[in-house]
Design a protein that fits this description.
Blueprint: H1 14-25, E1 28-34, E2 46-52, H2 58-66, E3 84-89, E4 93-97, H3 108-124, E5 128-136, H4 143-155, E6 159-164, H5 174-185, E7 196-197, H6 206-214
Parallel strand pairs: 2-4, 2-5, 5-6, 6-7
Antiparallel strand pairs: 1-3, 3-4
The structure holds guanosine-5'-triphosphate and magnesium ion (MG).
Length: 217
């Protein structure tokens, strides 16, 4: 067996899986949509956020993790999420759904406003424990993703790459996309050294991601 850099995250052991299941089956509520940095809730608890290109599946992933279909608004129109949406996860943490970057079906001025906010958030949130950067398994890491990853490097925010929509590619296509992703990640010091493969549609990787979030240091 070769020891690849950026291996796939291992499946959690049974007790850890159960911890994750329990946390995400418990109370999860929409707290607020934030449109400016001064609207962020007090940073008195740990939070994780979901970043990625428009339409990559951020909101869908939050719905899959929490088992609540309509919690985060997902849609086929890129640019659906236009605010930083906060969800409480139990009593101790927040899940944060971010607006997408890259193409969006919205006026330029509006997009610029939320891109600026997104960058401010990603570089200046003390209680942000980990950013999950979602990458469409069909497309791999694009230049706009690298831009965000570089910003996270500079801000020393650990980010973990999550490949989404893994149900949309064949098993035989996984190695090629993983090779591309690993090559790109090797240039980013803030990249967490494990990749998660997910399908919000089929459930692949969801228990693993729950366990990761639940046991974050
Ligand atoms: N097949 C498949 N489709 C998915 C998956 N995840 C999301 N989608 C679809 O992809 C589209 C976009 O999903 P969203 O969750 O709204 O994406 P988003 O990243 O939140 O998009 P913005 O808020 O616009 O940035 C929707 O049509 C989803 O149903 C997945 O795992 N598999
Ligand atoms: Mg969204």
């Amino acid at each position: 067996m070769t020891n690849l850099p950026f291996p796939l995250a291992e499946e959690p052991d049974e007790p850890t899986r159960e911890l994750g299941r329990k946390l995400f089956a418990g109370p999860v509520d929409f707290l607020k949509g934030v449109v400016a940095m001064d609207g962020l809730p007090p940073d008195d608890r740990a939070e994780v956020c979901f970043a990625g290109r428009s339409n990559v599946g951020k909101s869908s992933l939050i719905n899959a993790l929490t088992g609540r279909k309509g919690l985060a608004r997902a849609s086929n129109t890129p640019g659906r999420t236009q605010e930083i949406n906060y969800f409480t996860l139990g009593e101790q943490s927040y899940l944060v759904d971010l607006p997408g970057y890259g193409f969006a079906n919205a006026p330029v001025a509006v997009v610029e406003k939320w891109q600026r906010l997104l960058k401010q958030y990603l570089s200046g949130r003390a209680s942000l424990r980990r950013a999950f950067v979602l990458v469409d398994a069909r497309h791999g890491i694009k230049p706009v993703d690298e831009e965000i990853m570089t910003l996270l490097d500079r801000s020393a925010v650990t980010f973990q790459t999550v490949l989404t929509k893994i149900d949309k590619i064949k098993l035989s296509e996984r190695d090629a996309v993983l090779a591309q992703v690993r090559e790109k990640l090797s240039k980013h010091p803030a990249a967490y050294p494990e990749i998660v493969l997910t399908s919000s549609e089929k459930g692949e990787g969801i228990a693993t991601l729950r366990a990761i979030i639940t046991t974050l240091p």
